[in-house]
């Protein structure tokens, strides 16, 4: 699979979200960070803004729910227009049931892991998912430095995906930029959330193209991708 670049609107101008979405229409997905000021110490946006964004852009929405009680709220984001909904393993009461409900409503189901949460306890859940998100910073704020210590975890996650022969995307989020994307791709990631690296660029659309090209070139020679 070709690398996918998902610009994060957390780094966009919130007063001009429709325009900011249009500025990256060559992206694969638009990454929408939903924070509730409880699960993470920040407050961003919710269902009404997702509904408005879904009307304002043709780019599918990738909603990352950094919230408490995702079992209750996640289905509403599918109904609001999200094409992919990510809940946190640390917050979900019944992750298998939640993933199945998200899928039944027509969206891709994804599970995120904070940096300190290992992937191994969730091995048996992987077939219920369409994507796993490995956080490469502590969730809650944009613009943080990439945590290199997450690279072995990305590799272990890719190994589990390969072990079970799953068609499962592996996303990374946090500090992804021109200086870090190749390391992520070599380790096994194929979906990349980029905030500051895209919206901080003079030409966000060109930044998306450049990041994708970097990731594709690295993936072409990565050991994990051979035979895929």
Automatic annotation (TrEMBL):
Gene3D superfamilies: Aldolase class I
Sequence positions that bind a divalent metal cation: 31, 33, 64, 173
InterPro entries for this protein: Aldolase_TIM, Ribul_P_3_epim, Ribul_P_3_epim-like, RibuloseP-bd_barrel
PROSITE patterns named among the record's database cross-references: RIBUL_P_3_EPIMER_1, RIBUL_P_3_EPIMER_2
An example molecular function term from Gene Ontology annotations: D-ribulose-phosphate 3-epimerase activity
This protein's record includes keyword Chaperone: no
SUPFAM superfamilies xrefs: Ribulose-phoshate binding barrel
Positions contributing to substrate binding: 8, 64, 140-143, 173-175, 195-196
Function, in words: Catalyzes the reversible epimerization of D-ribulose 5-phosphate to D-xylulose 5-phosphate.
Protein name stated in the entry: Ribulose-phosphate 3-epimerase
Organism listed in the record: Streptomyces ossamyceticus
Taxonomic lineage: Bacteria, Bacillati, Actinomycetota, Actinomycetes, Kitasatosporales
């Amino acid at each position: 699979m070709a690398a996918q670049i998902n610009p994060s609107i957390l780094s966009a101008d919130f007063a001009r979200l429709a325009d900011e979405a249009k500025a990256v229409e060559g992206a694969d997905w638009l990454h929408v960070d939903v924070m509730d000021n409880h699960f993470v110490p920040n407050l961003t946006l919710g269902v009404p803004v997702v509904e408005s964004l879904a009307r304002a852009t043709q780019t599918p929405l990738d909603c990352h729910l950094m919230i408490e009680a995702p079992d209750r709220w996640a289905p509403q984001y599918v109904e609001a227009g999200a094409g992919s909904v990510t809940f946190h393993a640390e917050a979900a009461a019944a992750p298998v049931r939640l993933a199945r409900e998200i899928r039944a409503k027509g969206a891709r189901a994804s599970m995120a892991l904070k940096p300190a949460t290992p992937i191994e306890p969730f091995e048996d859940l992987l077939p219920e998912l369409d994507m796993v998100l490995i956080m490469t910073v502590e969730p809650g704020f944009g613009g943080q430095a990439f945590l290199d210590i997450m690279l072995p975890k990305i590799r272990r996650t890719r190994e589990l995906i390969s072990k079970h022969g799953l068609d499962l995307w592996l996303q990374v989020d946090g500090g992804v930029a021109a200086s870090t994307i190749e390391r992520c791709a070599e380790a096994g990631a194929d979906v990349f959330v980029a905030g500051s690296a895209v919206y901080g660029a003079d030409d966000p659309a060109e930044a998306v193209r450049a990041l994708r090209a970097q990731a594709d070139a690295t993936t072409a020679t990565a050991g994990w991708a051979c035979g895929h």
